[in-house]
Design a protein that fits this description.
It is built from seven helices and three strands. By secondary structure, it is mainly alpha-helical. The protein is elongated.
Length: 185
């Protein structure tokens, strides 16, 4: 192999725009595809130009916005998503709190208006009562107020037995006694 055909891993990382760790990780994951294209000399790892093209193809398969350092960058992406969601929640809570405070301010203003109106009405009533001169109350005793009570007296009617024969009187006294009770004698 020619020296010009070999490139250090650090140069590959720079060329592809990825981190050195990402390139090493991808080399380890794709040993079968890169077989024969990776060389180690004196502790330095080299990649052939064909190996660089294979690595470029492997890195191109990543989704847009996805980074090479999957473990580290996925955690960062997750943290960014969590922070974004928390920020949305925080913004919603702040907006809700502002709406609640506005509603409470309206209720407080309405209650203050009602209290002010009631206070004015009470003041007017007190003033009217002070201006009005009370009439003296005359207390009458029971003797002065009590009506004249007349006792009940039954109607005076002639006895039903008057002017009747003895057998008629006997009949009324024995068989129709209620006629006798109807009239006091």
């Amino acid at each position: 192999m020619n020296v010009l055909e070999q490139v250090k891993i650090a140069q590959v990382a720079k060329t592809l725009g990825v981190s050195l760790n990402s390139v090493y990780r991808k080399v380890k994951q794709s040993e079968e595809k890169l077989n024969g294209h990776i060389l180690k000399e004196n502790g330095v790892t080299y990649v052939t130009t064909e190996g660089v093209d294979i690595l470029r193809g492997l890195f191109a398969k990543l989704n847009p916005g996805e980074t090479i350092d999957n473990k580290e960058d996925t955690g960062i992406v997750c943290l960014r998503e969590i922070i974004a969601n928390q920020q949305k929640t925080l913004d919603a809570l702040i907006a809700q709190h502002a709406v609640e405070r506005a509603r409470q301010a309206e209720e407080r203003a309405r209650a203050d208006t009602i209290i002010m109106k009631l206070t004015q009405d009470v003041g007017k009533m007190q003033k009217m009562l002070e201006e009005r001169k009370p009439e003296p109350v005359q207390v009458k005793t029971f003797a002065e107020v009590k009506p004249e009570v007349k006792p009940w007296e039954p109607k005076k009617v002639a006895s039903p037995l008057v002017g009747k024969a003895w057998y008629q009187k006997l009949w009324v006294e024995i068989f129709e006694p209620w006629k006798m009770r109807q009239q006091p004698y």
